[in-house]
Design goal:
Helix content: 10-25%
Low-confidence stretches: none
Pfam family, one: tRNA_Me_trans_M
Subcellular location: Cytoplasm
Number of domains: 3
CATH class of the largest domain: Alpha Beta
Strand content: 25-35%
CATH superfamily of the largest domain: HUPs
Mean pLDDT: 90
Number of strands: 17
Oligomer: single chain
CATH topology of the largest domain: Rossmann fold
Family: Belongs to the MnmA/TRMU family.
Structural class: alpha/beta
Shape: globular
Order of helices and strands: EHEHEHHHEEEEHHEEEEEEEEEE
Strand order of the largest sheet: 12-15-14-13-16-17
CATH architecture of the largest domain: 3-Layer(aba) Sandwich
Function: Catalyzes the 2-thiolation of uridine at the wobble position (U34) of tRNA, leading to the formation of s(2)U34.
EC number: 2.8.1.13
Largest sheet: 6 strands, antiparallel, barrel
Radius of gyration: 22 Å
Length: 365
């Protein structure tokens, strides 16, 4: 880790084992650590939301860990910010027939934007988090983000939107560790979060995403059409309940035929379905781009990851501008979903990314 003894660091603590070990490692390295947790849950939170992370219980555990490590702890109120920048856009995206990833949005617009600003206000030189990401500083002093050493936990996919000017101020103490070792350190230190299970769900969504969307967006019956012929092959209750590639729960008239969702059109309230081959896309167009290098240095060929758990694939950069880019895949990709992130890499180095706006596929008239 960079810095000298006594350097002040704001450590983001979520009440989980990763951020707990992060605080402990920083303290051991001689940093002056200030623990902080961002409060997102509302006063009248539902019992079944914000339970594993970002909850009152998690805040209590984070405060206890801060006491164990021997650092001060503060709870920062970001409720209004979270509602405006995360929850609202999450529902808006589904209403537009897109599939959002709120964790990307949260890291971009809350954690690595607002938290860096707060750290500077508190006189901190750095912000540290428990993400499995490696901070690499070149001989020329440039700070880069690289994939974490634990391939099963790498979280660079969620950080493509980090403002480039914030990179020098961010530390990832567990980025060079594997998850089992992180838990071992927590056990050795006697941290109460050592065996705490990981958060898997969207923090503000109770149960299934579809049920949450149904609760907040109006249902509107419409046709399901065959992509090759335009034939009506079923009915739906709203485009917001579907995602590209989906083949289960379509309720088609000819239920024996395997069909995938290949396009969602909220303007005409139509769900388009087709064969597996109809859901293979030659490329994508992305908007809202953010680059972690000079645009002129972006390679002509990159690796791109179109969803968190997918393998990166090679792609040619057809066009890249300040606000977006267009890629052509080396091989067609299945179910490239608008609203998800297209994240760019050169080997392990994170180059940036954007929100998938279109999958470059023509529809029948």
């Amino acid at each position: 880790m960079v810095g000298n003894a006594g350097t002040r660091v704001l450590c983001a603590m979520s009440g989980g084992v990763d951020s707990s070990v992060t605080a402990a490692l920083l303290k051991d390295a001689g940093y002056q650590v200030i623990g902080a947790m961002m409060r997102f849950w509302p006063d009248g939170k539902r019992v079944d939301t914000f339970d594993t992370c970002c909850s009152p219980d998690a805040a209590y555990e984070a405060r206890r860990v801060a006491e164990q490590v021997g650092v001060p702890f503060y709870l920062l109120d970001y409720r209004e910010h979270f509602q405006r920048h995360i929850v609202g856009p999450f529902l808006d995206e589904y209403a537009r027939g897109r599939t959002p990833n709120p964790c990307v949005n949260c890291n971009t617009k809350v954690k690595f934007d607002e938290l860096v600003k707060k750290a500077k206000m508190l006189g901190c030189q750095y912000v540290a988090t428990g993400h499995y990401v490696k901070r690499v500083e070149t001989l020329h002093g440039e700070v880069q983000f690289h994939r974490g050493d634990d391939p099963r936990k790498d979280q660079t996919y969620f950080l493509w939107g980090t403002p480039r000017d914030a990179l020098p101020y961010i530390l990832f103490p567990v980025g060079e560790l594997e998850k089992p070792r992180v838990r071992e350190i927590a056990e050795e230190r006697g941290l109460l979060t050592a065996r705490k299970p990981e958060s898997q769900n969207i923090c503000f969504v109770p149960g299934k995403v579809g049920d949450y969307v149904a609760e907040h967006l109006p249902q509107a019956q419409g046709p399901i059409r065959e992509i090759r012929t335009g034939e009506v092959v079923g009915e739906h209750l709203g485009t917001q309940f579907y995602t590209l590639g989906q083949k289960k729960g379509l309720g088609l008239y000819q239920s024996h035929r395997v069909r995938h969702v290949v396009h969602l059109d909220p303007e005409t309230n139509t769900v388009w379905v087709g064969d597996y081959e109809d859901c293979l896309w030659p490329g994508l167009r992305a908007e809202g781009a953010n680059y972690l290098l000079d645009l002129a240095e972006l390679p002509a060929e990159v690796e791109v990851q179109v969803r968190y758990r997918s393998k990166p694939v090679r792609a040619r950069v057809v066009e890249a501008g300040e606000h977006g880019f267009e890629l052509e895949f080396e091989e067609p990709q299945f179910a490239v979903a608008p609203g998800q992130s297209a994240v760019l890499y050169a080997g392990d180095r994170l180059l940036g990314g954007g929100l998938i706006a279109d999958h470059l596929r023509a529809l029948p008239d």
